[in-house]
Amino acid sequence: MKIALVRGAFLNQYEAQMFAPLAKKHSLTAFSSRHPIHDRMLFPLVKLPSPMDINFGPLARWKMPVLNRLFVDAHWLIGLEEKLAGFDIAHCNETYYHFTHQCLLAKKQGKVKRVVATCAENIPFNNEGIWGRRCYKQFARENVDLFLALNERAKETLTLEGVDEKKITILPFFIDTKRFKPTVGRRGGPLTILFAGRLEFFKGVYEIAYAFKWLSQKYNLNLLFVGSGNEKKQLEKLVKARFVTASYDQMPEIYRQADIFVAPSRAGHHWQEQFGMTLLEAMASGLPIVTSFSGAIPETVGTAALFANPGDFYSLAQALEKFIQDPRLRHHYGTLARQRALKFDTAIGTEKLAVIYEQVLQNNRV
Questions:
Q1: Domain spans of the chain, in order of start
Q2: Distances (CA, A) of 268 to 44, 196, 229, 294, 337
Q3: What is the mean pLDDT of residues 295-316?
Protein backbone atom coordinates (compact mmCIF):
# COMPACT_ATOMS: atom_id res chain seq x y z
CA MET A 1 0.00 0.00 0.00
CA LYS A 2 1.02 3.57 -0.65
CA ILE A 3 -0.04 5.62 2.38
CA ALA A 4 0.08 9.39 2.97
CA LEU A 5 0.08 10.51 6.59
CA VAL A 6 -1.19 14.09 6.33
CA ARG A 7 -0.68 16.06 9.53
CA GLY A 8 0.49 19.55 8.52
CA ALA A 9 1.88 21.55 11.44
CA PHE A 10 0.64 18.83 13.82
CA LEU A 11 3.12 16.16 12.67
CA ASN A 12 4.73 14.72 15.78
CA GLN A 13 6.78 11.78 17.00
CA TYR A 14 4.36 10.64 19.68
CA GLU A 15 1.65 9.87 17.12
CA ALA A 16 4.09 8.75 14.41
CA GLN A 17 5.47 5.93 16.59
CA MET A 18 2.39 3.87 15.73
CA PHE A 19 2.83 4.46 11.99
CA ALA A 20 6.60 3.89 11.72
CA PRO A 21 6.45 0.05 11.69
CA LEU A 22 4.13 0.20 8.66
CA ALA A 23 7.04 1.56 6.63
CA LYS A 24 8.70 -1.87 6.81
CA LYS A 25 5.99 -3.41 4.59
CA HIS A 26 4.33 -0.47 2.88
CA SER A 27 5.23 2.85 1.27
CA LEU A 28 4.56 5.49 3.94
CA THR A 29 5.10 9.23 3.45
CA ALA A 30 4.27 12.04 5.86
CA PHE A 31 3.12 15.48 4.71
CA SER A 32 3.66 18.46 6.98
CA SER A 33 4.04 22.21 6.96
CA ARG A 34 7.55 23.67 6.85
CA HIS A 35 7.69 23.82 10.65
CA PRO A 36 5.81 20.90 12.23
CA ILE A 37 6.00 19.92 15.90
CA HIS A 38 8.59 17.26 15.01
CA ASP A 39 10.33 16.57 11.72
CA ARG A 40 12.53 13.60 12.62
CA MET A 41 10.62 10.65 11.21
CA LEU A 42 11.57 7.05 10.49
CA PHE A 43 9.92 7.36 7.07
CA PRO A 44 9.99 9.95 4.26
CA LEU A 45 8.65 13.42 5.01
CA VAL A 46 7.47 16.02 2.49
CA LYS A 47 7.25 19.58 3.80
CA LEU A 48 4.86 21.94 2.03
CA PRO A 49 4.34 25.68 2.47
CA SER A 50 1.45 26.60 4.76
CA PRO A 51 -0.09 29.69 6.34
CA MET A 52 0.86 28.00 9.61
CA ASP A 53 4.51 28.82 8.80
CA ILE A 54 3.87 32.58 9.00
CA ASN A 55 5.59 34.15 12.00
CA PHE A 56 3.39 36.78 13.64
CA GLY A 57 6.12 37.72 16.14
CA PRO A 58 4.76 39.81 19.05
CA LEU A 59 1.26 39.48 17.56
CA ALA A 60 1.32 35.68 17.87
CA ARG A 61 -1.91 35.64 19.89
CA TRP A 62 -3.73 36.91 16.77
CA LYS A 63 -2.22 34.35 14.41
CA MET A 64 -4.93 31.69 14.44
CA PRO A 65 -7.94 34.06 14.61
CA VAL A 66 -6.63 35.96 11.58
CA LEU A 67 -5.46 33.00 9.48
CA ASN A 68 -8.51 30.85 10.17
CA ARG A 69 -10.77 33.63 8.95
CA LEU A 70 -8.69 34.17 5.84
CA PHE A 71 -8.45 30.49 4.87
CA VAL A 72 -11.46 28.90 6.69
CA ASP A 73 -8.76 26.88 8.44
CA ALA A 74 -5.07 27.81 8.56
CA HIS A 75 -3.86 24.22 8.18
CA TRP A 76 -3.63 24.47 4.40
CA LEU A 77 -0.76 22.63 2.70
CA ILE A 78 -0.10 24.39 -0.59
CA GLY A 79 0.17 21.89 -3.44
CA LEU A 80 -0.97 18.88 -1.40
CA GLU A 81 -3.55 17.69 -3.95
CA GLU A 82 -0.91 17.19 -6.63
CA LYS A 83 1.49 15.50 -4.21
CA LEU A 84 -1.16 12.91 -3.31
CA ALA A 85 -1.39 11.63 -6.90
CA GLY A 86 -0.90 7.84 -6.94
CA PHE A 87 -1.47 7.23 -3.22
CA ASP A 88 -3.86 4.51 -2.09
CA ILE A 89 -4.79 6.14 1.21
CA ALA A 90 -4.57 9.67 2.60
CA HIS A 91 -4.84 9.61 6.38
CA CYS A 92 -5.73 13.04 7.74
CA ASN A 93 -7.26 14.61 10.87
CA GLU A 94 -10.66 15.97 11.93
CA THR A 95 -13.49 17.12 9.68
CA TYR A 96 -12.70 20.84 9.53
CA TYR A 97 -8.94 21.06 8.89
CA HIS A 98 -8.04 22.52 5.54
CA PHE A 99 -5.70 19.63 4.69
CA THR A 100 -8.55 17.17 5.28
CA HIS A 101 -10.61 19.12 2.74
CA GLN A 102 -7.64 18.96 0.36
CA CYS A 103 -7.37 15.19 0.74
CA LEU A 104 -11.05 14.87 -0.15
CA LEU A 105 -10.63 17.13 -3.18
CA ALA A 106 -7.72 14.93 -4.29
CA LYS A 107 -10.00 11.91 -3.96
CA LYS A 108 -12.71 13.63 -6.03
CA GLN A 109 -10.06 14.35 -8.67
CA GLY A 110 -9.03 10.68 -8.75
CA LYS A 111 -5.56 11.33 -7.33
CA VAL A 112 -5.99 9.26 -4.17
CA LYS A 113 -8.24 6.22 -3.71
CA ARG A 114 -9.42 6.48 -0.09
CA VAL A 115 -9.41 9.04 2.72
CA VAL A 116 -9.25 8.06 6.39
CA ALA A 117 -9.63 10.69 9.13
CA THR A 118 -8.64 10.39 12.78
CA CYS A 119 -11.03 12.41 14.95
CA ALA A 120 -10.46 13.55 18.52
CA GLU A 121 -13.09 16.30 18.71
CA ASN A 122 -15.46 15.46 21.56
CA ILE A 123 -17.82 18.46 21.67
CA PRO A 124 -20.66 18.12 19.13
CA PHE A 125 -20.93 20.91 16.54
CA ASN A 126 -17.80 22.59 17.84
CA ASN A 127 -15.56 24.65 15.52
CA GLU A 128 -18.43 25.92 13.40
CA GLY A 129 -18.31 29.62 14.24
CA ILE A 130 -15.92 30.54 11.40
CA TRP A 131 -17.34 31.06 7.91
CA GLY A 132 -16.91 27.96 5.79
CA ARG A 133 -16.28 25.52 8.61
CA ARG A 134 -19.75 23.97 8.49
CA CYS A 135 -19.32 23.34 4.77
CA TYR A 136 -15.94 21.71 5.35
CA LYS A 137 -17.38 19.47 8.06
CA GLN A 138 -20.39 18.49 5.97
CA PHE A 139 -18.18 17.70 2.98
CA ALA A 140 -16.00 15.51 5.22
CA ARG A 141 -18.97 13.68 6.73
CA GLU A 142 -20.17 12.79 3.25
CA ASN A 143 -16.83 11.90 1.62
CA VAL A 144 -14.41 10.49 4.20
CA ASP A 145 -14.30 6.72 3.72
CA LEU A 146 -13.62 5.88 7.35
CA PHE A 147 -13.43 7.87 10.58
CA LEU A 148 -11.07 6.64 13.30
CA ALA A 149 -12.43 8.02 16.57
CA LEU A 150 -9.90 8.14 19.40
CA ASN A 151 -12.51 7.03 21.93
CA GLU A 152 -16.23 6.50 22.51
CA ARG A 153 -16.74 10.18 23.28
CA ALA A 154 -15.32 11.20 19.89
CA LYS A 155 -17.38 8.51 18.17
CA GLU A 156 -20.63 9.75 19.70
CA THR A 157 -19.72 13.32 18.72
CA LEU A 158 -19.40 12.21 15.10
CA THR A 159 -22.71 10.35 15.18
CA LEU A 160 -24.50 13.35 16.70
CA GLU A 161 -23.14 15.47 13.86
CA GLY A 162 -24.61 13.05 11.33
CA VAL A 163 -21.86 10.56 10.48
CA ASP A 164 -23.13 7.06 9.73
CA GLU A 165 -22.00 4.83 12.60
CA LYS A 166 -20.95 2.21 10.05
CA LYS A 167 -18.24 4.63 8.89
CA ILE A 168 -16.68 4.93 12.37
CA THR A 169 -14.30 2.66 14.22
CA ILE A 170 -12.47 3.40 17.46
CA LEU A 171 -8.70 3.48 17.32
CA PRO A 172 -6.85 5.31 20.12
CA PHE A 173 -3.27 6.48 20.22
CA PHE A 174 -0.65 3.89 21.16
CA ILE A 175 2.67 4.04 22.99
CA ASP A 176 6.02 2.25 22.70
CA THR A 177 6.02 0.51 26.07
CA LYS A 178 9.61 -0.63 25.53
CA ARG A 179 10.79 3.00 25.45
CA PHE A 180 8.42 4.31 28.09
CA LYS A 181 8.89 1.95 31.01
CA PRO A 182 9.15 2.13 34.82
CA THR A 183 12.38 2.83 36.63
CA VAL A 184 13.92 0.08 38.74
CA GLY A 185 14.04 1.23 42.35
CA ARG A 186 13.51 4.76 43.59
CA ARG A 187 16.11 7.45 44.24
CA GLY A 188 16.28 9.10 47.62
CA GLY A 189 15.30 12.68 48.34
CA PRO A 190 12.05 14.63 48.01
CA LEU A 191 9.20 13.34 45.87
CA THR A 192 8.98 14.90 42.41
CA ILE A 193 5.61 15.85 40.96
CA LEU A 194 5.69 16.07 37.16
CA PHE A 195 3.55 17.89 34.62
CA ALA A 196 4.35 17.50 30.91
CA GLY A 197 2.45 19.41 28.25
CA ARG A 198 1.50 22.87 27.15
CA LEU A 199 1.70 25.53 29.85
CA GLU A 200 -1.75 26.88 29.16
CA PHE A 201 -4.65 27.84 31.40
CA PHE A 202 -6.93 25.08 30.09
CA LYS A 203 -4.36 22.43 31.06
CA GLY A 204 -4.92 23.24 34.73
CA VAL A 205 -1.40 24.55 35.31
CA TYR A 206 -2.52 27.13 37.87
CA GLU A 207 -4.31 24.47 39.89
CA ILE A 208 -1.00 22.57 39.94
CA ALA A 209 0.84 25.65 41.17
CA TYR A 210 -1.67 26.43 43.93
CA ALA A 211 -1.90 22.80 45.05
CA PHE A 212 1.90 22.55 45.18
CA LYS A 213 2.25 25.73 47.22
CA TRP A 214 -0.32 24.41 49.68
CA LEU A 215 1.31 20.98 49.93
CA SER A 216 4.82 22.45 50.25
CA GLN A 217 3.83 23.92 53.60
CA LYS A 218 3.66 20.36 54.97
CA TYR A 219 5.92 18.23 52.74
CA ASN A 220 9.35 18.41 51.14
CA LEU A 221 8.52 18.21 47.42
CA ASN A 222 9.83 19.11 43.99
CA LEU A 223 7.66 20.30 41.10
CA LEU A 224 8.78 19.88 37.48
CA PHE A 225 7.04 21.52 34.53
CA VAL A 226 8.10 20.14 31.13
CA GLY A 227 6.87 22.15 28.17
CA SER A 228 6.25 25.69 27.03
CA GLY A 229 3.27 27.97 26.64
CA ASN A 230 1.68 31.33 27.28
CA GLU A 231 1.51 30.90 31.06
CA LYS A 232 5.18 30.06 31.64
CA LYS A 233 6.34 33.51 32.75
CA GLN A 234 3.43 33.94 35.16
CA LEU A 235 3.96 30.46 36.61
CA GLU A 236 7.65 31.18 37.16
CA LYS A 237 6.64 34.16 39.31
CA LEU A 238 3.98 32.20 41.14
CA VAL A 239 5.65 28.97 42.22
CA LYS A 240 9.12 27.63 42.97
CA ALA A 241 9.52 24.87 40.40
CA ARG A 242 11.81 23.65 37.66
CA PHE A 243 10.80 24.60 34.12
CA VAL A 244 12.43 22.68 31.28
CA THR A 245 11.87 21.95 27.62
CA ALA A 246 12.84 18.56 26.25
CA SER A 247 12.88 16.63 23.00
CA TYR A 248 10.64 13.61 22.67
CA ASP A 249 13.73 11.39 22.85
CA GLN A 250 14.40 12.76 26.33
CA MET A 251 10.91 12.20 27.68
CA PRO A 252 11.21 8.53 28.74
CA GLU A 253 14.05 9.44 31.12
CA ILE A 254 12.16 12.47 32.46
CA TYR A 255 9.21 10.27 33.39
CA ARG A 256 11.56 7.85 35.14
CA GLN A 257 12.88 10.71 37.29
CA ALA A 258 9.39 11.52 38.60
CA ASP A 259 7.34 10.01 41.42
CA ILE A 260 3.85 11.35 40.66
CA PHE A 261 2.34 12.59 37.41
CA VAL A 262 -0.32 15.27 37.40
CA ALA A 263 -2.61 16.34 34.53
CA PRO A 264 -5.63 18.33 35.80
CA SER A 265 -7.09 19.60 32.51
CA ARG A 266 -10.05 21.92 32.72
CA ALA A 267 -13.36 21.40 30.93
CA GLY A 268 -14.65 24.36 28.91
CA HIS A 269 -17.42 25.16 26.43
CA HIS A 270 -15.16 24.83 23.40
CA TRP A 271 -12.47 22.39 24.55
CA GLN A 272 -12.17 19.33 26.75
CA GLU A 273 -9.22 16.96 26.89
CA GLN A 274 -9.41 14.84 23.76
CA PHE A 275 -7.14 11.97 24.75
CA GLY A 276 -4.14 12.90 26.88
CA MET A 277 -1.05 11.40 25.24
CA THR A 278 1.10 12.38 28.22
CA LEU A 279 -1.22 10.32 30.41
CA LEU A 280 -0.44 7.30 28.25
CA GLU A 281 3.30 8.01 28.52
CA ALA A 282 3.04 8.36 32.29
CA MET A 283 1.07 5.12 32.56
CA ALA A 284 3.63 3.26 30.48
CA SER A 285 6.31 4.69 32.78
CA GLY A 286 4.54 3.17 35.79
CA LEU A 287 3.74 6.49 37.48
CA PRO A 288 0.83 7.03 39.86
CA ILE A 289 -1.39 9.66 38.24
CA VAL A 290 -3.66 12.42 39.49
CA THR A 291 -5.88 13.81 36.75
CA SER A 292 -9.32 15.35 36.29
CA PHE A 293 -12.78 14.69 34.86
CA SER A 294 -12.26 16.47 31.55
CA GLY A 295 -13.39 15.08 28.21
CA ALA A 296 -11.91 11.70 27.33
CA ILE A 297 -9.51 11.42 30.28
CA PRO A 298 -11.62 8.83 32.16
CA GLU A 299 -11.63 6.65 29.02
CA THR A 300 -7.86 6.96 28.69
CA VAL A 301 -6.84 6.10 32.26
CA GLY A 302 -9.74 3.90 33.36
CA THR A 303 -9.28 3.00 37.04
CA ALA A 304 -5.51 3.57 36.95
CA ALA A 305 -5.56 7.10 38.40
CA LEU A 306 -6.95 9.29 41.13
CA PHE A 307 -9.31 12.06 40.02
CA ALA A 308 -9.74 15.67 41.06
CA ASN A 309 -12.44 18.12 40.05
CA PRO A 310 -11.44 20.32 37.08
CA GLY A 311 -10.47 23.84 38.08
CA ASP A 312 -10.29 22.93 41.78
CA PHE A 313 -6.82 23.28 43.33
CA TYR A 314 -8.00 21.99 46.70
CA SER A 315 -9.47 18.80 45.26
CA LEU A 316 -6.20 18.35 43.33
CA ALA A 317 -4.10 18.90 46.46
CA GLN A 318 -6.14 16.34 48.40
CA ALA A 319 -5.66 13.70 45.71
CA LEU A 320 -1.92 14.40 45.49
CA GLU A 321 -1.63 14.19 49.28
CA LYS A 322 -2.95 10.63 49.25
CA PHE A 323 0.02 9.60 47.08
CA ILE A 324 2.49 11.71 49.04
CA GLN A 325 1.52 10.08 52.31
CA ASP A 326 1.32 6.47 51.16
CA PRO A 327 4.16 4.84 49.15
CA ARG A 328 2.16 1.61 48.90
CA LEU A 329 -0.69 3.49 47.24
CA ARG A 330 1.79 5.02 44.79
CA HIS A 331 3.13 1.57 43.97
CA HIS A 332 -0.37 0.14 43.56
CA TYR A 333 -1.51 2.82 41.13
CA GLY A 334 1.81 2.78 39.30
CA THR A 335 1.35 -0.95 38.71
CA LEU A 336 -2.23 -0.45 37.54
CA ALA A 337 -1.05 2.27 35.19
CA ARG A 338 1.64 0.12 33.61
CA GLN A 339 -0.75 -2.79 33.16
CA ARG A 340 -3.27 -0.54 31.42
CA ALA A 341 -0.60 1.02 29.18
CA LEU A 342 0.39 -2.41 27.86
CA LYS A 343 -3.06 -2.57 26.18
CA PHE A 344 -2.00 0.52 24.19
CA ASP A 345 1.33 -0.82 22.94
CA THR A 346 2.32 0.33 19.46
CA ALA A 347 2.58 -3.25 18.18
CA ILE A 348 -1.15 -3.67 18.82
CA GLY A 349 -2.01 -0.35 17.19
CA THR A 350 0.12 -0.89 14.11
CA GLU A 351 -1.43 -4.29 13.45
CA LYS A 352 -4.94 -2.88 13.79
CA LEU A 353 -4.11 0.03 11.53
CA ALA A 354 -2.75 -2.23 8.77
CA VAL A 355 -5.95 -4.31 8.82
CA ILE A 356 -8.07 -1.16 8.70
CA TYR A 357 -6.21 0.18 5.68
CA GLU A 358 -6.57 -3.10 3.80
CA GLN A 359 -10.30 -3.26 4.49
CA VAL A 360 -10.81 0.37 3.50
CA LEU A 361 -9.08 -0.27 0.19
CA GLN A 362 -11.33 -3.28 -0.38
CA ASN A 363 -14.26 -1.00 0.48
CA ASN A 364 -15.43 -3.45 3.13
CA ARG A 365 -16.96 -2.53 6.43
CA VAL A 366 -14.32 -2.30 9.20
A1: 2-174+345-361, 191-344
A2: 38, 20, 18, 9, 27
A3: 96
